Amino acid sequence: MSQHHQPSTLAALGRTWVEAWNTGDLERVLALYDEAAVMTSDRIPALGFDASGTVRGKEALRTYWGKALGLLPELHFSLIELFVSPDSVVVFYANERGKKICEYLRVNDAGLIVQGSANHLVG
Prior knowledge:
Elements: H1 7-23, H2 26-30, E1 33-40, H3 43-46, E2 54-56, H4 58-71, E3 78-85, E4 88-94, E5 100-107, E6 113-120
Parallel strand pairs: 1-6
Antiparallel strand pairs: 1-2, 3-4, 4-5, 5-6
């Protein structure tokens, strides 16, 4: 279990995460992640990656998100709300198509994201 982070620090990470995605700069996004980060999303198999819906490690994230960004040149996230716990932040946002998404981001002691999970509305 990682140390407890201040709510303001986690909220700032959530805002920085949205800002990084909105730049379209993949390296800026990846700088927020630990080398061993794990990401889960139903979009992972849809883009031809691991059928389990999980990618592991920063290099795998670079490959997956690089492909996704290439397919979504208009990508833009609009922050709706942030929710924090002692070691995570949930970023609730709408994407460029108006779809609402919650992204769970757990952080390590250094404040880097070690686990992410994209959660989409059903239907």
